[in-house]
Design a protein that fits this description.
Length: about 200
Protein backbone atom coordinates (compact mmCIF):
# COMPACT_ATOMS: atom_id res chain seq x y z
CA UNK A 1 0.00 0.00 0.00
CA UNK A 2 2.89 2.34 0.80
CA UNK A 3 4.46 1.83 -2.62
CA UNK A 4 1.07 2.26 -4.27
CA UNK A 5 0.66 5.62 -2.53
CA UNK A 6 4.21 6.62 -3.46
CA UNK A 7 3.58 5.85 -7.14
CA UNK A 8 0.29 7.66 -7.47
CA UNK A 9 1.58 10.69 -5.59
CA UNK A 10 4.68 10.69 -7.82
CA UNK A 11 2.45 10.61 -10.92
CA UNK A 12 0.06 13.24 -9.60
CA UNK A 13 2.82 15.68 -8.65
CA UNK A 14 4.44 15.25 -12.07
CA UNK A 15 1.04 16.05 -13.57
CA UNK A 16 0.79 19.23 -11.52
CA UNK A 17 4.16 20.31 -12.95
CA UNK A 18 2.96 19.60 -16.51
CA UNK A 19 -0.22 21.61 -15.91
CA UNK A 20 1.75 24.52 -14.43
CA UNK A 21 4.13 24.59 -17.40
CA UNK A 22 1.23 24.65 -19.85
CA UNK A 23 -0.51 27.46 -17.94
CA UNK A 24 2.67 29.57 -18.12
CA UNK A 25 3.26 28.67 -21.78
CA UNK A 26 -0.30 29.62 -22.67
CA UNK A 27 -0.02 32.98 -20.91
CA UNK A 28 3.39 33.65 -22.50
CA UNK A 29 2.07 32.85 -25.98
CA UNK A 30 -0.83 35.26 -25.47
CA UNK A 31 0.98 38.14 -23.75
CA UNK A 32 4.69 37.74 -24.49
CA UNK A 33 7.59 36.54 -22.36
CA UNK A 34 8.05 39.91 -20.64
CA UNK A 35 4.55 39.70 -19.17
CA UNK A 36 5.16 36.46 -17.28
CA UNK A 37 6.84 38.18 -14.33
CA UNK A 38 4.19 40.87 -14.08
CA UNK A 39 1.34 41.16 -11.60
CA UNK A 40 -1.13 40.34 -14.38
CA UNK A 41 0.51 36.96 -14.96
CA UNK A 42 0.32 36.10 -11.28
CA UNK A 43 -3.31 37.17 -11.18
CA UNK A 44 -4.26 35.13 -14.24
CA UNK A 45 -2.43 32.04 -13.00
CA UNK A 46 -3.94 32.47 -9.54
CA UNK A 47 -7.41 32.71 -11.03
CA UNK A 48 -6.77 29.62 -13.17
CA UNK A 49 -5.75 27.54 -10.16
CA UNK A 50 -8.52 28.98 -8.01
CA UNK A 51 -11.12 27.92 -10.58
CA UNK A 52 -9.36 24.60 -11.10
CA UNK A 53 -9.34 23.69 -7.40
CA UNK A 54 -12.96 24.75 -7.04
CA UNK A 55 -13.94 22.42 -9.87
CA UNK A 56 -11.89 19.59 -8.34
CA UNK A 57 -13.70 20.02 -5.02
CA UNK A 58 -17.15 20.12 -6.64
CA UNK A 59 -16.51 17.08 -8.83
CA UNK A 60 -14.92 15.17 -5.92
CA UNK A 61 -17.96 15.83 -3.75
CA UNK A 62 -20.30 14.61 -6.49
CA UNK A 63 -18.27 11.44 -7.08
CA UNK A 64 -18.13 10.78 -3.33
CA UNK A 65 -21.86 11.35 -2.91
CA UNK A 66 -23.21 9.49 -5.94
CA UNK A 67 -20.60 7.03 -7.24
CA UNK A 68 -18.12 5.80 -4.63
CA UNK A 69 -20.49 3.63 -2.56
CA UNK A 70 -22.07 2.18 -5.70
CA UNK A 71 -18.71 1.34 -7.29
CA UNK A 72 -17.53 -0.38 -4.11
CA UNK A 73 -20.86 -2.19 -3.65
CA UNK A 74 -21.29 -3.49 -7.19
CA UNK A 75 -17.69 -3.82 -8.41
CA UNK A 76 -15.66 -4.18 -5.22
CA UNK A 77 -12.35 -2.84 -3.98
CA UNK A 78 -10.29 -4.63 -6.63
CA UNK A 79 -12.02 -2.82 -9.50
CA UNK A 80 -12.19 0.48 -7.62
CA UNK A 81 -8.42 0.30 -7.15
CA UNK A 82 -7.94 0.26 -10.93
CA UNK A 83 -10.19 3.20 -11.84
CA UNK A 84 -7.76 6.05 -11.11
CA UNK A 85 -4.69 4.50 -12.77
CA UNK A 86 -6.78 3.59 -15.84
CA UNK A 87 -8.07 7.17 -16.12
CA UNK A 88 -4.57 8.55 -15.50
CA UNK A 89 -3.05 6.25 -18.14
CA UNK A 90 -5.52 7.43 -20.78
CA UNK A 91 -4.97 11.05 -19.74
CA UNK A 92 -1.17 11.06 -19.78
CA UNK A 93 -0.87 8.92 -22.91
CA UNK A 94 -3.11 11.43 -24.67
CA UNK A 95 -1.24 14.40 -23.11
CA UNK A 96 1.97 13.22 -24.74
CA UNK A 97 0.43 13.72 -28.17
CA UNK A 98 -2.17 16.44 -27.52
CA UNK A 99 -0.33 19.01 -25.36
CA UNK A 100 -3.23 21.47 -25.19
CA UNK A 101 -4.00 23.33 -21.98
CA UNK A 102 -7.75 22.70 -22.13
CA UNK A 103 -7.22 18.97 -22.62
CA UNK A 104 -4.61 18.67 -19.86
CA UNK A 105 -6.82 20.68 -17.52
CA UNK A 106 -9.65 18.20 -18.13
CA UNK A 107 -7.40 15.19 -17.59
CA UNK A 108 -6.06 16.65 -14.33
CA UNK A 109 -9.59 17.51 -13.17
CA UNK A 110 -10.56 13.87 -13.62
CA UNK A 111 -7.40 12.58 -11.95
CA UNK A 112 -7.51 14.86 -8.91
CA UNK A 113 -11.25 14.44 -8.42
CA UNK A 114 -10.95 10.65 -8.41
CA UNK A 115 -7.90 10.84 -6.14
CA UNK A 116 -9.75 12.85 -3.47
CA UNK A 117 -12.89 10.69 -3.62
CA UNK A 118 -12.82 7.12 -4.93
CA UNK A 119 -9.07 6.53 -4.55
CA UNK A 120 -8.98 7.89 -1.00
CA UNK A 121 -11.92 5.75 0.09
CA UNK A 122 -10.53 2.63 -1.61
CA UNK A 123 -7.08 3.18 -0.11
CA UNK A 124 -8.57 3.24 3.39
CA UNK A 125 -10.69 0.14 2.64
CA UNK A 126 -7.48 -1.78 1.95
CA UNK A 127 -6.65 -1.69 5.66
CA UNK A 128 -9.90 -3.40 6.71
CA UNK A 129 -8.60 -7.01 6.59
CA UNK A 130 -5.19 -6.09 8.08
CA UNK A 131 -4.01 -6.38 11.66
CA UNK A 132 -4.58 -3.74 14.33
CA UNK A 133 -0.86 -2.93 14.18
CA UNK A 134 -1.02 -2.34 10.44
CA UNK A 135 -4.05 -0.08 10.83
CA UNK A 136 -2.47 2.14 13.46
CA UNK A 137 1.26 1.99 12.62
CA UNK A 138 1.78 1.09 8.97
CA UNK A 139 -1.05 3.39 7.88
CA UNK A 140 0.62 6.36 9.59
CA UNK A 141 3.91 5.61 7.85
CA UNK A 142 2.19 5.24 4.50
CA UNK A 143 0.18 8.46 4.89
CA UNK A 144 3.27 10.48 5.78
CA UNK A 145 6.58 9.02 4.59
CA UNK A 146 5.49 7.36 1.34
CA UNK A 147 3.27 10.25 0.25
CA UNK A 148 5.99 12.82 0.89
CA UNK A 149 8.63 10.59 -0.70
CA UNK A 150 6.53 10.63 -3.86
CA UNK A 151 6.79 14.44 -3.81
CA UNK A 152 10.56 14.21 -3.35
CA UNK A 153 10.94 11.82 -6.28
CA UNK A 154 8.85 14.12 -8.45
CA UNK A 155 11.02 17.11 -7.49
CA UNK A 156 14.11 15.06 -8.38
CA UNK A 157 12.64 14.09 -11.74
CA UNK A 158 11.68 17.69 -12.55
CA UNK A 159 15.17 18.88 -11.62
CA UNK A 160 16.90 16.19 -13.69
CA UNK A 161 14.46 16.56 -16.57
CA UNK A 162 14.76 20.32 -16.84
CA UNK A 163 18.46 20.65 -15.93
CA UNK A 164 20.14 17.75 -17.72
CA UNK A 165 17.67 15.94 -19.97
CA UNK A 166 15.86 18.82 -21.64
CA UNK A 167 12.41 17.37 -20.96
CA UNK A 168 9.33 19.15 -22.25
CA UNK A 169 5.82 18.38 -20.90
CA UNK A 170 5.55 15.54 -23.45
CA UNK A 171 8.53 13.70 -21.95
CA UNK A 172 7.20 14.11 -18.42
CA UNK A 173 3.84 12.72 -19.59
CA UNK A 174 5.61 9.70 -21.12
CA UNK A 175 7.48 9.09 -17.85
CA UNK A 176 4.11 9.12 -16.10
CA UNK A 177 2.79 6.52 -18.55
CA UNK A 178 5.64 4.20 -17.55
CA UNK A 179 5.01 4.81 -13.85
CA UNK A 180 1.28 4.16 -14.26
CA UNK A 181 1.94 0.78 -15.88
CA UNK A 182 3.90 -0.20 -12.73
CA UNK A 183 1.10 1.30 -10.60
CA UNK A 184 -1.51 -0.82 -12.41
CA UNK A 185 0.52 -4.00 -11.90
CA UNK A 186 0.89 -3.19 -8.21
CA UNK A 187 -2.83 -2.42 -7.89
CA UNK A 188 -3.71 -5.78 -9.43
CA UNK A 189 -1.38 -7.58 -6.97
CA UNK A 190 -2.79 -5.68 -3.99
CA UNK A 191 -6.34 -6.39 -5.16
CA UNK A 192 -5.63 -10.12 -5.25
CA UNK A 193 -4.12 -10.02 -1.77
CA UNK A 194 -7.11 -8.04 -0.49
CA UNK A 195 -9.49 -10.65 -1.90
CA UNK A 196 -7.54 -13.46 -0.24
CA UNK A 197 -7.42 -11.72 3.14
CA UNK A 198 -10.99 -10.52 3.20
CA UNK A 199 -12.76 -13.23 1.22
CA UNK A 200 -14.55 -10.53 -0.81
CA UNK A 201 -14.11 -8.71 -4.11
Amino acid sequence: IGFLMLLYNFVNTNGEYILGKLVLASYTAEHGAAAVASLDAKKVIGEFYGNFQTMVNVISAMIQAFLVSRILKYFGVRVALLVLPAVALIGYASMAFVPLLAFIRGAKLAENSLDYSLQNTTKNALYLPTSREAKYKAKQANDTFFVRFGDVLSAGLVFAGTTWLGFAPREFALVNVGLIIVWLALAVAIGRLFKRLSGTT
